[in-house]
Amino acid sequence: MADSTAPSVADEILQRDILPTIFPGPPSATPVVVLVAGQPGAGRGRVAARIAATEGATALSGDELRAFHPITQSEHLLSGEQQQEVATATAGWLRDCLRYARTNGHSVVLEGAFTDAAVVRGTAAQFAAAGFGTRVAVVGARRADSLLAVLSHYLRNVQASNPATYTSRSAHDAGFGGTRALVAAIEADPAADRLTVVDGRGDIVFDAARHDAGAFAGASAALAVAQGGRMSRLESTQWLSELHHVTAFAQSQRRLPRDVAETLVELHEIALSEVIPQLHVPAGARFAEMTARTTSARLAALRESLVGPVQPDAAAPVVVPAGPERGGISR
């Protein structure tokens, strides 16, 4: 639909479909805005949904809003131009939904990478001026977990022939580092009434209300522990299993975007250097040795595929520096 995001059409979709669906109930008696931050693949959506249920708030995300775009109903993978069209419309709808919530007193939970602390500070200030309580919740997931989740979600959509966008490693890592910078900024100069840090398992590892200049001391340390925590044996086994399924499907494809192939290489390097050693099995155990050999062989094959230039498939999904949350090719 060529004119599907023309201002008049986009506003019609907003008024007719989005606002009645997203905000079906009355305003909140004591409205609150919660900004849920974390790198792509960290599990922000799960944390946002849980907080929304606790606060009686509406959870907002670009993934949910993009589903209202007519183009996303197509059974075909989206072109780069269509991806940009959807992204532009979604950004506008998200902005309009936030304005509607702030103006009408609806509690709202918004998830995003939030790599710019100034944006968080400005958003919190706008809602505070409208009489809202303000809270920032940060998801501290391990980089290995979120990087695999991003890749897995992308390939799962490719496998299902769904519209697929891939979050580049640079965008992922900007979110990972930006999360640390955000917490450090809020710890030094509180920008919200409450700051919460949640680890990758969903457990709260820091939670404090603003009452004086030092109220959020220790938040950065809590985040660093969460992002750098060791995997349990079960977590390591599940991670390796997911990597196996992801790799098997990826290698069955005629061609892969280069960044996807490079991410697979890095994930296998992470498997050998970080994950397999965390299996917590006796030295020389057969399972660990076999897993290491298999992983090394796959890594060699993946590196070999990158020796020559990897040409993107014209029919393949376009890699763009933004993407959805988590997923699992084997789940």
UniProtKB/TrEMBL annotation:
<dbReference type="InterPro" id="IPR010488">
    <property type="entry name" value="Zeta_toxin_domain"/>
</dbReference>
<dbReference type="Pfam" id="PF06414">
    <property type="entry name" value="Zeta_toxin"/>
</dbReference>
<dbReference type="GO" id="GO:0005524">
    <property type="term" value="F:ATP binding"/>
</dbReference>
<dbReference type="InterPro" id="IPR027417">
    <property type="entry name" value="P-loop_NTPase"/>
</dbReference>
<keyword id="KW-0067">ATP-binding</keyword>
<dbReference type="GO" id="GO:0016301">
    <property type="term" value="F:kinase activity"/>
</dbReference>
<comment type="similarity">
    <text>Belongs to the zeta toxin family.</text>
</comment>
<keyword id="KW-0547">Nucleotide-binding</keyword>
<protein>
    <recommendedName>
        <fullName>UDP-N-acetylglucosamine kinase</fullName>
        <ecNumber>2.7.1.176</ecNumber>
    </recommendedName>
</protein>
<feature type="domain" description="Zeta toxin">
    <location>
        <begin position="26"/>
        <end position="205"/>
    </location>
</feature>
